[in-house]
Amino acid sequence: MTHSIEHITLPTASLGTERNVTVHRFGTPGARPKAYLHAALHAQELPGIVVLEHLQKRLHEADAEGKIIGEIALVPFANPIGLSQQIMMEAQGRYDLDTNRNYNRGFPDLIGEVVEVIADSLTDDGDENVAVIRTAIGTALEGRKDAREADVLKLRLLQLSHDADLVLDLHSAWEALLHLFVTDVNWPDADDLARQIGAEVVLVDRGNRMMTFKSAHALLWKEVAARFPDHPVPPGSLTAVVELRGQRDVDDHLTRPDADNLYHWLQRRGVIAGSPGPLPEARCEPRSVVGLHRLTAEAGGILVYHRQLGHAVREGETFCHILDPETATRTPVTAPIDGLLYARRSHRFARKGQYFCAIAGDTPIEG
Ligand SMILES: [Zn+2]
Fold this sequence. Notes:
Layout: E1 4-9, E2 20-27, E3 34-39, H1 47-64, E4 71-75, H2 80-83, E5 86-87, E6 90-91, E7 95-96, E8 101-102, H3 111-118, H4 126-142, H5 149-161, E9 166-173, E10 175-176, E11 179-183, H6 191-197, E12 201-205, H7 213-227, E13 238-246, H8 252-268, E14 286-288, E15 292-296, E16 301-305, E17 312-313, E18 318-324, E19 329-334, E20 339-344, E21 349-350, E22 355-361
The site of zinc ion has 4 residues, from loops.
């Protein structure tokens, strides 16, 4: 049996407290491929936690049967700081209440540092280059002197994942279809993941400098490759954000099949032995994140939807009204683009200017 548990202690932020990141490891350290999965970086996004519990049970069985070929690291709840934030019975795990910063922004941007270190070390061998770059990332992470608890948390999550071949960041929206965010450097490589988990929306982006957890991986590999066009630099990891529907969708009838699909995907990628079965058909075409519209309320009031999640809206179609009960007027909300209504905030009251739903436009990916 290879399973082990590690508790990584975060620096004490407040007198008399201590928080830990729990890591479950399966397989032989250093074996390839290495997979890293964590859940609930935005702490109140709970479905991924349940999915990883189901997945862990399957991994224990595989471990007992000697089927773990690579190495697997699971962090079932990646943000114990956010999980501790409750205000008047409501979980508030998206933003650090201490700094008002989004927990999924501001991961260390190591691109410049890594480029400088590896400049004279790259060869014509892509695998060797990946190893050199991973070492440089690890060294850069070790050299950081972060003090704040939340910054150290981000550092630890990158230290656990920076050398993994497969990196999955499990989130959930308020109410949503199962969807995937992936950076172009990892597309179409992630097509098998999208099909295996039954993604109903796949959004392909270019990476962004807000340094989300995904960008800290994907953008780094993309930009290092761009800086050294004369050397082969394949992406050292496939990193994706899997949005497991809405925050309340924790029930086993949803989360157990999700875990089964992740298990099959790990088999497909050679991390676990055994046949994953046939690859399911894609449930959607990939869309460019350029066509993603996050709608903000033109008026304050109560959101009255006329269309459900998953409805294909047409540009100009009124799919919702915002009711102002003071004047009994309704402001129509029209779709800015042909696309899919795929995510909504759960609260049906919006303030003027507040984000309340998202439409994935039917915008094909570039090139
Ligand atoms: Zn999230």
